[in-house]
Structures are given as structure tokens and as C-alpha cells.
Amino acid sequence: MKNLDDLLSEGVRGRRVLLRADLNVPLDGDKITDDGRVRASLPTIEKLIGAGARVVVTAHLGRPKGEPDPQFSLAPVARRLGELLGAHVAPAGDVVGDSARSVVDGLADGSVGLLENVRFDPRETSKDDAERGAFAQELVDLIGPDGAFVSDGFGVVHRKQASVYDVAKLLPGYAGGLVLSEVDVLRTLTGDPRRPYVVVLGGSKVSDKFGVIEALLPKVDKLLIGGGMAYTFLAAKGYQVGSSLLQEDQLAATRELLERHGDKLVLPVDVVAADRFAADAQVQVVDSGAIPDGWMGLDIGPRSVELFAGALRSAGTVFWNGPAGVFEFDAFAAGTRGLAQAIVDSDSFSVVGGGDSAAAVRTLGLPEDGFSHISTGGGASLEFLEGKELPGVAVLEGGD
Length: 400
Prior knowledge:
The protein is built from 14 helices and 17 strands. The protein has helices at 4-10, 36-50, 75-85, 98-105, 129-143, 177-190, 210-216, 230-236, 251-261, 302-313, 334-345, 355-363, 378-386, 391-394, and strands at 16-20, 27-28, 31-32, 54-58, 89-91, 112-114, 148-151, 173-175, 197-201, 222-225, 265-266, 270-274, 283-287, 296-300, 317-321, 349-352, 373-374. α2 (36-50) crosses α3 (75-85), α7 packs across α13 and α10 (302-313) packs parallel to α11.
């Protein structure tokens, strides 16, 4: 697929470039609590403005219900992006309306405008091809016939949405540096990774990860299970899990998975249990099969950390997606911190699969350069490893 360097070699000075970025950052009011995705977008934006392009950024934030909602405005992102670029980023007050047209028309060579949250328009995520296509055409009309489209929001390339997929069928499309590097890294994992190949999966629901677990198990040497979904695995082994998160409707499938791949699946041997879901809850460390009634597991225990860390330290390749526990609470952060530190201490080619894992690296103060790659797209990473086609990548490669 054509990439950003191809576009720059064609020349972009004076041309409008529609850039789909992933700026879906966590907010506390109008304060960004983790600007990792904004920082990740900088290299592509800086290359474009350095070459004289008039950059029109489109992105989403949160899950508004197809209409303007002030709590999901991209205005704080425009401010932060401007601070990081050291230049004003003109924020539009709408997506394709009068404000958007005014911002785009006012751009000079080497300047940046940010359209309002693209999901404020219900057509962005419509399942109707014609509706999405009409919205994409309005985005393209802002850019003009000599413009170009750069896809650099890896966190959304698994979605068939107007600003991700349909615009690439109307404008010449190019992969931004972020998308290109993400795809290259993930192809390394699906090719011939250095062994032992160890995967760590966390997260709350086993049902969300079944597809990728099934796809990975034939390829990996060890698959370590943490997070909330571990308790469904433990219950499938007949263990008492108290009031821990449990998907009872997944027990039969989980039990069958353990029977087929029990030699590769590694479960916690102890957990940090709490009497309630709260930062100041009473806490005790118990064996995985001895969680008291009314108590819930909220982190893996110290023996589990050492068990998992042993596998990680000797790994040649590591993929990690999902924290080991509720790392946002100090009492339940040790598991995630221990696993992450073991990866940092290893000599492995290590990939952090975006989402909460990437947030944990920054929240817990771990060195980002201690990992080979930190993805910006958790869901996209998992779907790629599962073998699914990513529409936003396929369209750049000339597919449907």
C-alpha cells in the first residue's frame, strides 16, 4: 500500500490533506489524563506540515450517540495538540458544517485544523453503505479534488466507518507512519516470531478474547491469563471464585479450551482478593481456588507474578494485551506492574497491545522505551492477530 513517504514525494505544498488520526484520549472534565495517542500522532502531522500541507485532522472521542455532546468535544485535544506541535491548531465547532468549512478555508500552508468529533454525525458509524458514503463525500468536499487522505489512526482501522474506510475510496489514500509501523510489527508476530513466544492476555471478559485465544494457541509456547477473565478459567477448573467476575455462559467453552490446550495455558496460582470493589477495600492474598464467599479477586497474587515473570523473562517474543488486575487502585496494581517489569527486564521483542495495557505502562511510571513497541490500537491489534481483515488497511491495499 502507498504510504506517507509516497505522498510527500508527490508534493503536498498548498494541498489539503485529510488525516484520520486516533485521538480518543481519556478525559477528566476537559483535562486529558493520558495524551499517549496525541503524542503518537505527532510524527505524521509534523512531516505533513513540514512539507507545506494544509492538514485537516478528523478523529473521534468516546461514544457519543450520533449527535453533538459537549463532554465528547475534541476542543481539549486541539489545545493539547497545539501545545505539542508548538503551533495553533484551529478547532472547528462542527464536523462538516459552516465552522468546519471556515476552518479549512482559513488554513495556510503548513498549518493544522481539527474537525469536531466525527461521531457527532450518525452517518460515521452507519451500517448503511449509502449513508456512510454520503458523509464521506462531505468530508472529501472540504478537502477538494486535488487533496489526499492519510490513514494514521490504527486504533480504528478495524472499523468500516466513513472517515476510516469510505473516504479512502474517494481520495488517493496513503498509510501514515503509525499505521505502517503497527502493521509491520503485527506481521512480525504472525510470521516467524523468535521463541519462546509468550502471550499475556487480561481484560474483564473471556468472551471478548475467545477468538484471539483460539487463533494464538497453536502458535504460542505459553499463554498467560490474568485480569477479570481469569476467574472464568478458574471456575471452569472447578475452583471457588467467590463474587469475582464470572461469565457462567462461557464455562463450558472455557473448560473445553483447557482440556485441549492446558499445557500452554497458564493461570494464576494466587490472587489478591477484596471484600468489595473499592480502593480502600479489605484485602487478603489467597490461593486461586480458595477465594472466600463474598470476596472478589482483583489482581493476581505474588506467587502468580513470579510464575508469569519467569516465563516472560526467558521469552524471545512477548505480546501483552490487558492488565493483570485493577491497576487503577494501588492495592491491585502490583500484578500488572510485576508483569510489565518482567517484560522490560527481558531481552524479548515485546509488543504492548494498546488499550488499558498501554495506559498502565504510563500510569505506573514504567519506561516506554523498555518495550519494543506500544500499540495505539488494542481492538485492532487483537483482530489482526485473530486473522481478521482490517477494513481500514484493506482499502489502502486496494481491497474492498
